[in-house]
Input
Amino acid sequence: MKDFSLEIYEALLVQALCSGYQFQTFEQFIENPKNGKVLVLRHDVDRLPDNAYKMAQIERNLGIEATYFFRIVKSVWEPMIIQKIIDFGHEVAYHYEDLSIVKGDYVKAIKHFEYHLSEFRRLYSSKTICMHGSPMSKWDNRKIWEKYSYRDYGIIAEPYFDVDYTKTLYITDTGRTWDNSEFNIRDRVNSGFDLKVKNTYHLIKLFKDGKMPKNVIINTHPQRWFNPGLNWYKELIMQNFKNTIKRLIVMRRQ
Output
């Protein structure tokens, strides 16, 4: 199996199940966290909603519920695909980037947020949201909540504000790797864990060997996960190029 393939993604989920982990959506984890070992699958759908659909199918076949945060740009906002993912039993919510889209105008940004949140709620009663990092933008989309409150819109949680990461391990495939501090611009949390994950094979072994903590959130970006073939190699090449650019941005901001 190649890393970052749908095949190895399924193997990861199977191992987590075999290791006794219960799966919850992000909304469920916030409202009614289960006792015992819990794994939340968070998917940031930045591109290629068809890939999100394929991942959702794998999860549905395993009896797993996950959370999908969709951007509202034209290439991602596909209501028919989103509805199919909802029908599988998954949570769907807004991957917001309003401040970046309107270039830092807070008044326009909150109006933009209100409208697109209402669009999501035509399909699903979304109660959570999640920031899109917009790595090439100078605006951090989370800053909008310095002037407004998402709780005024019936939102119960945002992953970067409402999870105690000293008790919950957060790992992300940002940069098409699990150890990505060199080119991770905004997808960072203050973690209470010092656990380095080399690749998905290593992640599977950590679950198998009982070395993962009780609560885990895994964030994946579906556009990075393909079965072996042309698209798999294309994503590998493009991500390596993007990582070079991101690494330079991180160095400049330090």
In short: The chain is about 35% helix and 15% strand.
